[in-house]
Design a protein that fits this description.
about 100 residues, 2 strands, alpha+beta
Length: about 100
């Protein structure tokens, strides 16, 4: 095992990794950093914990979505507008879930 330093949304983290798994871990860090920065840059959400939860949900949903056959080209779904009722409901549920003690774990 070795320790590697990574940056996620401008904050440094020291992570443990096997030599063989370092590349995969760095790819995961890049994916998380990109997802969190996109949410932050959208401007509606400022709290790191909320950004992290939304990024985790987005990444998990992408991982759960069935992959199309390789020869089939799929259209990308339109993003949910931030003024839609679905978005407002999601944000209200997220606010309620995080309102308790302010900690995720």
């Amino acid at each position: 095992m070795k320790q590697i330093e990574v940056q996620i949304m401008g904050q440094s983290y020291i992570l443990a990794s096997s030599v063989e798994g370092e590349s995969l871990l760095r790819q995961a860090v890049a994916k998380v950093d990109t997802a969190m920065c996109q949410i932050r840059d959208a401007g509606k959400i400022k709290a790191r914990d909320r950004i992290a939860v939304l990024a985790a949900l987005n990444i998990a949903a992408q991982g759960l979505a069935p992959s199309p056959p390789e020869n089939l080209e799929m259209a990308k779904p339109a993003p949910v507008p931030t003024n839609s009722p679905d978005y407002a409901l999601l944000m209200a549920r997220l606010d309620n879930a995080l309102a308790g003690d302010g900690q995720l774990l």
